[in-house]
Specification:
elongated, mainly alpha, 0% strand, 157 residues, 86% helix
Length: 157
C-alpha cells in the first residue's frame, strides 16, 4: 500500500483530533476562570455557570467522534488490504483540517461568549438562558464540520 495517502489521511486525523480538543480545553478553562472570578461576587451561581463552562467541551467531542469513525474505517481498509486512493486521502485530510480548525475557533469564540455571560451573572444580572441560547450559534459550525466528516466517512471504501 502506498504510504503518501496514508500519511495524508493520518495527518488529517491528527489535526482533527488535536485542534478540536485543544480548543475545548482552552475554552472550558476560559469559562472556568470567569466562574472563579464571578463566584467571589455571587457564590450561588455555580450550577448555572458550570453548565455554561461545559459548552466549549463539545467541540473536542466532535473531533474525537469523527476521528473514531474515520480511523476505524481506515483500520478496516488496512486489515482487508484495500488500497487508499489519493482522492480519499485528500478528502480525509481536508475534513480533518476543516473540523480541527472549525472546532478550535468555535470553542474559543463560544468560550468568550460564555465567559461574558458568567461575568454578568456574577454582577447579578439574570442572563443565563440568554447566554445559553447565544452560545449555541458558534456550536452550529462545529456541528456542520462534524457532519462533513461523517459524509467523508460514508464515501470511504
Amino acid at each position: 500500500m502506498e504510504q503518501l495517502p496514508l500519511f495524508l489521511a493520518y495527518t488529517g486525523l491528527a489535526v482533527m483530533l488535536a485542534l478540536s480538543c485543544i480548543g475545548s480545553a482552552y475554552g472550558v478553562t476560559m469559562g472556568g476562570n470567569a466562574t472563579v472570578a464571578a463566584l467571589k461576587k455571587n457564590p450561588d451561581m455555580f450550577g448555572s455557570s458550570m453548565i455554561l463552562c461545559a459548552l466549549p467541551s463539545t467541540q473536542g467531542l466532535y473531533g474525537f467522534a469523527a476521528f473514531f469513525l474515520i480511523n476505524s474505517k481506515l483500520a478496516e481498509m488496512l486489515a482487508a488490504g484495500t488500497e487508499l486512493g489519493i482522492g480519499y486521502a485528500l478528502a480525509v485530510l481536508a475534513v480533518g483540517l476543516s473540523l480541527g480548525f472549525v472546532g478550535y475557533f468555535s470553542a474559543i469564540r463560544q468560550a468568550n461568549l460564555v465567559a461574558n455571560g458568567i461575568n454578568e451573572m456574577g454582577n447579578g444580572n439574570d442572563v443565563f438562558s440568554k447566554t445559553l441560547i447565544l452560545a449555541v450559534f458558534p456550536e452550529l459550525y462545529a456541528i456542520l464540520a462534524f457532519a462533513a466528516a461523517f459524509l467523508v466517512w460514508g464515501i470511504l471504501p
